[in-house]
Amino acid sequence: MKVLLSRRSVIPSLVILTILTVIVTLLAPTDRVLGAATRMVYVHGAIIRVILGTFLLSGLLGLIYLFNRKTAWVEWSRVLMETSLLLWIPYLVSATIATLQTWGAIAWFEPRWLVTLQVSVIAPVAYVVSLVVKKPIVTAALNAIVAAAIFLLTRSAGLILHPIDPIASSGDNGIIVSYLVLLALCALFAGQVARGLRFWHQRREA
Questions:
Q1: Is 72 left (phi over 0), alpha (psi -120 to 50) or beta?
Q2: What is the pLDDT of residues 9-52, one digit of tens each?
Q3: Contact 183, 49 (CB under 8 A)
Q4: CA 189 to CA 12: how far, in whole Å?
Q5: pLDDT tens digit sequence for 63-99
Q6: In this structure, are residues 16 and 201 in contact, taking their beta carbons and an 8 Å threshold?
Q7: 8 A C-beta contact, residue 143 and residue 150
């Protein structure tokens, strides 16, 4: 009964979190220079930080499975990879809009944008391979490799147009608090997506 209620709570919670995210974004203060474009920067920044976290956690759990063959490790690694890929879609949309609003065009040479394009290929390809092979050890290894690749690509990417940390460097407490609230909402949203995917896999494999 508890599991059933948990399953039923996923979609309503996602709807509520989406509504709260929209409200916070609309009420958040804007930067004097960027104006309304600040709101998309909030969303863009919050989503990518959460996605990077889910990618890395997926890789970590995959790595743990390689040394400790407990099924739960690879199952959650798979779920978090799927969560990352699902959230990657709204991230790409927010990144494109934020880029157009703040830079006026897509700067294809910008290192951070190049990383986005690379991850958009690496992660889906690795996931498809894991679906085709259907071996837990391969899934775990691929997820760990993807996480390591994303970490290395992000760490090595230089900064040309992309600021280091526009939110923290703004010096505006209202902007910082609004961003942190959005970050928390995005993290909760990702958590609920992961729970929903976990329930779906359990039902399919039952």
A1: alpha
A2: 888 999 999 999 999 988 877 766 566 666 777 788 889 999 99
A3: yes
A4: 11
A5: 999 999 899 999 999 999 999 999 999 898 888 887 7
A6: no
A7: no
